[in-house]
Amino acid sequence: MKPVIVVHGGAGRIFKDREDGCRSGVTRAALKGYGILKHGGSALDAVEEAVVVMEEDPHFNAGCGSVLNEKGEVEMDAIIMDGKNLASGAVSAVKCIANPIKLARLVMEKTDHMLLTDQGASAFARGMGVPEVPGEKLITGRSLERWKKNLEADSNPQQFQKDLGTVGAVAIDSAGNVACATSTGGLTNKRVGRVGDTACIGSGGYADNNVGATSTTGHGESIMKVVLARLILYHMEQGKSPGDAADSALDCMKTRVGGLGGVIVISNSGDWAARCSTQEMSWATVKDDQLHYGIHAGEWHTQPAEEAISSLGC
């Protein structure tokens, strides 16, 4: 099997001054994951490390750069899933952790549970030796400005919910195993303790070697109502291509509950798709040593992976 990785940096409104940073961020993430795959690494390692790259990039709503809750704090969710045995780990409402996706993998591999939240997740992190970082280290000037603006009496936080920035990755490795990973800071000015779709298996992501893998982004409550990730794989089980399955599921979410979002999908044969019902979604993929990436509908850039690595200094 030829390895393939696909990543997204979130569906929603991407403002002009942030486009270059988002393109660079997703391409770096895709190249990082592909490098692991090309050297015989697992799909699980590839999606984890690709998401780490984006968690550490302030252009995205995950890790450093996460939006703030109603108290002005960062609370993050993440999930990872192994398509080989359906093992999954997730965390929700975690604070002071630089890379929630790494903690999610520890939940998968070091506990008998699938999802740990809030104080329980923090205690587990300390027990596993995961270093804490000061909460302010995860807060960017942009996130703080948006939070303050949403506190104003005449503000409308919903206008900022279109700029979501959740990150995710899906991959297939040379052994034919698939995996997915998704990480987010959630909705700006959300209630303390709110858990969205990202940490919920079947909503924020799903991976099954028998079908493929997907990672989702968009309005979390809408995604949960239709269990978007699993719905996509259901359509693939019925014979649809990754692109058609993604379009059908996104159309269902928009029609049934008025929700918008985006998805990346990979099949167990290595076919892939990146689709969104929002204005934009940053995405990138590497297959056959060729990097492809874009943001706007119809935008498609192609570059040899080695050339891209040199130009980005990866």
UniProtKB/TrEMBL annotation:
Cellular component, GO annotation: cytoplasm
Detail which positions bind substrate.
R194, V195, G196, D197, T217, G218, H219, G220
Which positions are catalytic residues? T166
Q: Where is this site: Cleavage?
A: G165, T166
Q: Does the keyword Disulfide bond apply?
A: no
Alphabetized GO MF terms: asparaginase activity; beta-aspartyl-peptidase activity
Q: What class of enzyme is it?
A: hydrolase
Its UniProt entry gives the catalysed reaction(s) as:
Cleavage of a beta-linked Asp residue from the N-terminus of a polypeptide; L-asparagine + H2O = L-aspartate + NH4(+)
Q: Which UniProt keywords apply?
A: Autocatalytic cleavage, Hydrolase, Protease
Pfam families under this entry?
Answer: Asparaginase_2
Q: Name one GO biological process term.
A: proteolysis
The keyword Protease appears for this protein: yes
State the similarity comment.
Answer: Belongs to the Ntn-hydrolase family.
* PANTHER family named in the record: ISOASPARTYL PEPTIDASE_L-ASPARAGINASE, L-ASPARAGINASE
Protein's recorded name: Isoaspartyl peptidase/L-asparaginase
The organism encoding this protein is: Podarcis muralis (Wall lizard)
